[in-house]
UniProtKB/TrEMBL annotation:
Catalysed reactions, semicolon-separated: O-phospho-L-tyrosyl-[protein] + H2O = L-tyrosyl-[protein] + phosphate
Record bears the keyword Metal-binding: yes
Organism: Biomphalaria pfeifferi (Bloodfluke planorb)
CDD domains: HAD_MDP-1_like
UniProt-recorded name of the protein: Magnesium-dependent phosphatase 1
Length: 224
């Protein structure tokens, strides 16, 4: 079983911070909402094309479609969702499939409904999905982390300020950690920039010594 109870501490970027006193207090920043696409992110097919309802689950827990074709998910996904949920993370779905009922049925048959607090499943730009997720959850876009397999969705959702991770060949633990690494790195970079601005505001301006100052000083010496 994959252990993810301390995701942020396990990420390579946070470990690389070491004993840095300046950043150590900031190293525990976590995404407030983690959002997943479905097709080719959590499972290896397009639900509106590659499988046919009705679906059913057998006594051994396997799911099949109308043609007795086995409906599978990516191997590491159940453990990832389970441990994220147990660690207290809020999870959501953002899918643009037109097979809304089928997608919802499969998440139920896979016993994933227990993990997701929010779901937005409908066709169209995922900007709309995330605006609804923001409205429902109250989580700022900058505090969301999104995993998806399509460049167009990454580009769209990134424009809102969401940190987006492109998934290749399905979600796995290494890609999950990479997302947490990037989230931490972005948060630390923002902190550095903020501190730099504060220092520049507090720094007193120094008066430059000019030629006029030199001539004034010489005149004063001569008159004495």
């Amino acid at each position: 079983m994959i252990l993810i109870s301390s995701l942020v501490l396990k990420s390579s970027f946070v470990r690389s911070l070491g004993n840095c006193k300046t950043l150590s207090s900031f190293a525990m920043v976590e995404p407030k909402l983690i959002v997943f696409d479905l097709d080719y992110t959590l499972w290896p097919f397009w639900v509106d094309t590659h499988v046919d309802p009705p679906f059913h689950k057998t006594s051994d827990g396997k799911v099949y479609d109308a043609h007795q074709q086995r409906v599978k998910y990516y191997k590491e996904v159940p453990d990832i969702l389970n441990h994220l949920h147990k660690s207290g993370f809020q999870l959501a779905i953002a899918s643009r499939t037109s097979a809304i009922a089928e997608a919802n049925e499969l998440t139920k048959l896979f016993n994933w409904d227990q993990y997701f607090q929010y779901r937005q499943i409908f066709p169209g730009s995922k900007i709309t999905h995330f605006k609804k997720l923001h409205s429902l959850s109250g989580v700022p876009y900058e505090e969301m982390l999104f995993y998806d397999d399509e460049h167009r969705n990454i580009l769209d959702v990134s424009s809102l300020g969401v940190l987006c991770m492109l998934v290749n060949d399905g979600l796995n633990i290494n890609q999950l950690y990479r997302g947490f690494d990037d989230f931490q790195e972005r948060a630390v970079a923002k902190l550095k920039k903020k501190r730099k601005r504060r220092k520049s505001k507090r720094r007193p301006s120094r008066r430059r010594y000019t030629l006029d100052d030199a001539s004034t000083s010489s005149s004063s010496s001569f008159s004495q």
